[in-house]
Design brief:
The complex is a heterodimer of chains A (about 150) and B (about 350).
Chain A lengths: L5 H33 L12 E6 L7 E7 L2 E7 L5 E5 L10 E3 L4 E4 L4 E3 L5 E3 L8 E7 L2 E5 L3
Antiparallel strand pairs in A: 1-10, 2-3, 3-4, 4-9, 5-6, 6-7, 7-8, 9-10
Chain B lengths: L1 H14 L2 H9 L1 E2 L10 H20 L9 H10 L4 H28 L8 H23 L4 H14 L6 H9 L6 H33 L8 H6 L3 E2 H26 L25 H9 L3 E2 L2 E2 H17 L1 H4 L10 H22 L5
Antiparallel strand pairs in B: 1-2, 3-4
The chains are: A alpha+beta (about 150), B mainly alpha (about 350).
Chain lengths: ~150, ~350
């Protein structure tokens, strides 16, 4: 397009293109935003669990461990050979598996990728990068209570 | 016969089908000493068809909730007539499909068939392999058994390591912070709706590219292919492919009947991961490597290093038609040929060693 009208023809076209583009963009955005939000589930209000009854002392013989439910996640409570009771998060720091107590090794072990933790929850062998989160333990009579944030 | 003929004439008159028939009857498949490689893609397609058919059958009884999934699969394999067979075939065929896809991919790679102008075929095939693995990973959870539960915990946790969007991806895949019934319902949706839809579209494109370009003749075999007479696709090649499909069906039937797929124990989110847990065989080479890595490599968490290396290797594999610059002018580089053998040797040795119990 040339001539005196060339510039105005071109700008009219680019205006229309711009309008069309933004309209399409806005429509697409208006359609995709709810989809994007929909696929992420809403936060479910859960009463924060800070303290649970993890086990009965009578069901925890020396050199044994037990998985208990701590809110939505598993915890592990164990009794060492010398009678100490300790509790940790049971979620392996490597890739999220649930650990277990190995009486034969006398420490905590994760079956998924062969990770080992000592009786203080410290990662001692295998791939786990960090120690297990430790919990506070109160023994009241026969009942073992576990508290977060120890 | 006369009815068919008049039906054909009526359709041809309206849709002009003659060019399509003409194309099909003139399509040829070159013959040379590596012609065997042309059958793996079709074999993968066969197992995919079996998956669609048996998957639809399983849908008649399967219930995708944490409360009912395990019991519904139990019902299928114990009470529904031939339920054990259908479920077993679905599981075995999934594995054979991945195996056939790997054979297809490696033969294509080794023969240099990814080279220009077939980059798009390579890329769509790569995406289809990822989709097949996505099918395997999502389908693995559906019986809601112990192994599946922890495999999903681990697999989705890996996704959370992706920089920037990892946390978002984790929530998207799990339907929350943890692997729960919400995850199962999502995976079911991916497995029976999202993945099949994408796969069907990509598969159509993949096959269309091949039809449009014809079969690739590997470098150095052009003379042999010229001297030997090419075979016609219809009916000669189809007949031969049919024999391969029959062999696939026979293997499938034998495996499903003699080694019915186990169901295991129902998932318990508050139980320890059982000893001896491991993923499907096609993830073993990555799984064992992740187990061997120490907690930290050069100050970075070991699993991040491992996952980063695998992601990078996948990217190189994907980009090989671009990276192997010589291949674009018909001379693929020696380095990429060796790389292919190294990759194959690594995958084979780690998978076989893992199956043989070499790794503790």
């Amino acid at each position: 397009m040339s001539g005196p009208d060339g510039a105005s023809v071109l700008s009219r076209r680019s205006l229309l293109n711009w309008l069309l583009g933004t309209t399409l963009g806005a429509t697409l955005g208006a359609a995709l935003y709810p989809v994007f939000r929909f696929v992420i589930p809403p936060e479910v209000a859960e009463a924060p669990v800070n303290r649970v009854l993890a086990a009965k002392l009578s069901e925890l013989p020396l050199n044994s461990g037990k998985i208990f439910r701590f809110g939505a996640r598993p915890g592990i409570v164990l009794r060492t050979s010398d009678g100490a009771v300790r509790a940790f998060s049971a979620v392996c720091t490597h890739l999220n598996c649930t650990v277990q107590y190995r009486p034969d090794l006398q420490h905590i072990w994760c079956a998924c990728h062969n990770g080992h933790y000592d009786l203080q929850g410290k990662n001692i062998a295998g791939p786990p990068p960090r120690p297990l989160e430790a919990y506070k333990v109160d023994v009241k009579g026969d009942e073992v209570y576990v508290t977060k944030g120890a | 016969m006369r009815v068919l003929e008049s039906l054909w004439r009526a359709l041809d008159e309206r849709l002009d089908l003659a060019p399509l028939v003409n194309f099909a009857t003139h399509k040829e498949v070159p013959q040379h000493r590596h012609s065997w490689a042309y059958y793996f893609g079709g074999l993968t397609l066969f197992f995919f068809f079996v998956q669609v058919a048996t998957g639809i059958l399983l849908l008649l009884y399967y219930r995708p909730t944490a409360e009912a999934a395990f019991e519904s699969v139990q019902f299928i394999v114990t009470r529904v007539p031939f339920g054990w067979l259908i479920r077993s075939i679905h599981s075995w065929s999934a594995n054979l499909m991945v195996l056939a896809a790997f054979a297809h991919m490696f033969s294509v790679y080794m023969l240099g068939s990814y080279a220009k102008p077939r980059e798009l075929t390579w890329w769509s095939g790569f995406a289809l392999l990822l989709l097949a693995m996505g099918f395997g990973f999502s389908g693995y959870l559906l019986p809601w058994n112990e192994l599946a539960f922890f495999a999903t915990r681990v697999g989705t946790d890996m996704v959370s390591k992706v920089p920037l969007v990892g946390g978002w991806l984790l929530k998207y895949l799990r339907g929350g912070e943890e692997v729960t019934g919400a995850t199962l319902t999502r995976f079911f949706g991916f497995h029976v709706a999202v993945l099949p839809m994408i796969t069907t579209a990509l598969l159509a494109a993949h096959l269309a590219f091949i039809q449009r370009q014809g079969m690739h003749i590997p470098e150095g075999l052009e003379e042999e292919a010229r001297q030997r007479k090419a075979i016609r696709f219809v009916p000669n090649f189809m007949m031969r492919e049919g024999v391969v499909w029959l062999a696939g069906l026979a293997a499938l039937a034998a495996l499903a009947a003699f080694f019915p797929w186990e169901l295991g124990a129902k998932a318990d989110p508050f139980a320890s991961a059982p000893a001896g847990i491991r993923p499907e065989w096609y993830f073993l080479f990555m799984f064992e490597a992740l187990k061997l890595l120490p907690s930290h490599v050069l100050g970075i968490e070991g699993e991040l290093v491992g996952l980063g290396v695998f992601a990078l290797a996948g990217l190189v594999w994907f980009l090989v038609p671009v990276l192997d610059r010589g291949s674009r002018v018909g001379h693929r580089s020696r380095a990429f040929f060796v790389l292919g053998w190294l990759a194959l040797a690594y995958i084979l040795s780690f998978t076989l060693a893992s199956l043989a119990g070499v790794f503790k």
